[in-house]
Write a structure and sequence with these properties.
Radius of gyration: 20 Å
Number of domains: 1
Order of helices and strands: EEEHEHEEEEHEEHHHEEEHHHH
Distance between the termini: 39 Å
Number of helices: 10
Number of strands: 13
Strand content: 15-25%
Largest sheet: 7 strands, antiparallel
Helix content: 25-40%
């Protein structure tokens, strides 16, 4: 099935923590700090289908069973943009799956999860769902997708977001299927514009000031890939504020190198100019921190980047109780 190990990304190797667009042109522009040697690589894929695939499916299925309405929804999503975005998801998943998934323009089949669905992408319907024996079928045996976005989102490791822009100006989040959120509630973002979505992010002011140009670039000049990162004390994928097991940000939590993880989000941005919108994919990676900084040079870079954070950014990232011990440990590693 999907046997290759997950790619190792170290965006902290810049030695600075920044909140910026940080866009790399997918397919043409090399992304630095990729792989075991942290070299530069030109990436071409949208979906990362690797040996962690079962873990993502299991986590998404658990969130789906718990409270799908807390993770997914639509807001004034036009049929044209829905069709453009979901057609891209179905087609690209199939193309990048090595034959595990298939899409013929009507039926999407996943031979790993043991299901196939006839999809009406323009209107978002699942017209028929069929199940069959497959290696990972038990993971979704009791999960029933409610629409086409939900079905396709359950097949992908990545979370999905669709951003719309009115031809006369103004943008908004038109659809979300985010089952692996990192301490934010998708319901608070749905229907809001770029600035409102990112305003809670500490240090986002300069990026928000360029919002109209940035949204235009995403829709008309992509596709792009970008990265965000932080340090966490759990490798859980779903950190919805209403989900259980939030001990990673408890005030009493202290840094323990054996229970610390580097969490990196790889995001792709693909525009559909004729449909006036774009698709965002979000794939989290969690690496044991000891592995992430096994090279002393990497530990020095992470310590340097953490020291550039403002107090507001430290708080936003949930690092207030962790940072002193984390920096002391990193300095010892170097």
């Amino acid at each position: 099935m999907f046997e290759r190990p997950p790619t190792f990304y170290r965006p902290f190797l810049t030695g600075r923590y920044t909140v910026s667009a940080g866009l790399y042109r997918l397919g043409t522009q090399a992304v630095p700090w990729v792989g075991s040697e942290a070299g530069a690589v030109v990436e071409t894929h949208t979906f990362a289908l690797d040996r962690e695939y079962p873990r993502f499916v299991a986590s998404k299925a658990a969130a789906h069973r718990r409270a799908l309405h807390e993770y997914a929804g639509e807001a004034a999503l036009t049929p044209e943009l829905r069709e453009a975005a979901l057609s891209f998801v179905a087609r690209t998943l199939a193309e990048e799956s090595g034959g595990v998934m298939a899409w013929d323009g009507r039926t999407f089949t996943n031979r790993a999860l043991g299901w196939a669905a006839d999809l009406a992408l323009r209107w978002g319907g699942v017209e028929e769902l069929r199940r069959f024996a497959a290696p990972l079928a038990p993971l979704v045996a009791d999960v029933t997708p409610v629409n086409a976005l939900d079905f396709l989102g359950l097949n992908a490791p990545e979370d999905l977001a669709i951003v719309a822009r009115h031809p006369e100006g103004g943008d908004w989040v038109a659809a979300l299927h985010v089952l692996s959120p990192q301490h934010w509630d998708p319901r608070e973002k749905l229907g809001r514009d770029f600035v409102a979505v990112h305003e809670p992010v500490a240090g986002s002011g300069p990026m928000n000031a360029t919002a109209p140009r940035l949204v235009d670039a995403v829709i008309t000049r992509g596709p792009f890939v970008r990265f965000a990162w932080g340090v966490a004390t759990r490798d859980r994928l779903d950190h919805h504020p209403a989900a259980p097991q939030r001990a990673d940000r408890a005030p009493e939590t202290r840094f323990d190198p054996d229970r610390a993880f580097l969490r990196v989000e790889r995001q792709t941005l693909t525009g559909f100019p004729e449909a006036h919108g774009a698709l965002f994919t979000i794939r989290p990676y969690t690496y044991p921190l000891r592995d992430a900084v096994a090279d002393p040079a990497h530990a020095r870079a992470l310590a340097a980047a953490l020291r550039t954070m403002t107090p507001e950014q430290v708080a936003y990232k949930g690092l207030v109780p962790l940072l002193p011990g984390l920096l002391t440990w990193l300095d010892g590693v170097t």
